[in-house]
Each structure stands twice: as structure tokens, then as C-alpha cells.
Amino acid sequence: MSDHHEVQQEALKAVVRRNTLEVQSGGNFELFDELFADDFLDHTPQPGGTPDKEGARRLYQALREAFPDFHAEIHWQAVDGDIVTTFKTYHGTHQGVVLGIEPTGRKIKFETVDAMRIRNGQIVEHWGVANLYYLLQQLDALPSSAPKMPETKDHHNEQQ
């Protein structure tokens, strides 16, 4: 693999990392405007959301309102052409309405995998899958007939 190729891949990952750490986790919405292309398209918008830049902004703001301490832990990133795939865990304390659920004050976490296409240093497309089932389980918001997921033991320290 050429050095140039590696540098390019790192640059693509950095765009996504800045969005995850500075916008989603840090609430920097001026940076959001820079990082997202005006013609941004979300292939997997949340129910009731819109697949454009404004829809992504509203989703991020809603998450920060529901979880004021919302932050992400990036586990790994992979690059394929101009698409960066990221596996991460979101953490937060439930202090605002989320998915129609009133605040519980509970600490939550859930995993997501997302793919973002980068063009000229900006995010132009997004595909994502979030483990919202696990989020709902932590908020006791699943129907009582739903099977309980087995508790997973965290091998690293819970006190992050």
C-alpha cells in the first residue's frame, strides 16, 4: 500500500472522527455545517426524520437534548474507496425525551455501525444501523413479552 493511499485513508477517517467526537459528542454545530455537504443524503433516516442535511442536524440536536452528556467511543474504522465505516458505542444519561420516552435519569449505551461517503473533505452520504433494541431495553421501554437480552459482562472498566 502506498504512503499516499494511507494518507488519503487517514484524511477520510479524520473527517468522520471529527463529526463523531466534536459534533455528536461535543455539540459543535458550526463544525457540523462545515463537515456536511449541502447535498448530503441519508439513506437510513430515523422515522419521522428527513434524509437531508437539516434532518441530520435535527437528529444530532435531539440526541444532545435527550442525552446532554452524549458521547461516542470509536472502536474501529475501515475505509473502502471514499466510504468510511465506523463501529462505535454511544453513551449518555437520559435527561430528555427520546423515542417518545420521558427522561429516566439512567445511564445508557448502544452500538452503531455507520458508513459515510466523503467528497472533498465533506460527508455526502450516510448509511447506518443502530442497536435501538438495546437502548429501549435499558429504558425499560420494551413490551413485557419481549425476550430479555442476556447481560453482557464488560471486560474493561465501567468507570470511563
UniProtKB/TrEMBL annotation:
Matches recorded under SUPFAM superfamilies: NTF2-like
Entry's Gene Ontology BP terms: polyketide metabolic process
Lineage: superkingdom: Bacteria
UniProt name for this protein: Putative ester cyclase
